[in-house]
Design a protein that fits this description.
Layout: H1 3-12, E1 21-25, E2 28-33, E3 43-45, E4 48-56, E5 59-63, H2 67-79
Antiparallel strand pairs: 1-2, 2-4, 3-4, 4-5
Length: 80
């Protein structure tokens, strides 16, 4: 399965992974995750918790995300 297909499955059925939402940020994605995932480089923005989801060596990897990277996307989504 190609990595794009994995992201599509993740976007369509994020609840399988305990994820409630997947959003596009620039060239990567961010996911809303359970609070206990904060130890995996998550960040809290507006009461929800986010991690960056990236592709590395054909694997999905959770990596740090800066609050300023996610805030503009969250604010824009809430306005629409």
């Amino acid at each position: 399965m190609k990595i794009e297909d994995k992201l599509k499955v993740l976007a369509e059925r994020p609840e399988i992974f305990g994820i409630t939402k997947l959003i596009k940020i620039g060239g990567s994605y961010a996911i809303i995750v359970p609070k206990l995932w904060l130890e995996f480089n998550g960040v809290e923005v507006d009461g929800e918790y986010y991690c960056r989801l990236e592709v590395a060596n054909s694997q999905l990897v959770f990596s740090p995300i800066a609050p300023e990277d996610i805030e503009s996307v969250v604010i824009r989504e809430k306005k629409s």
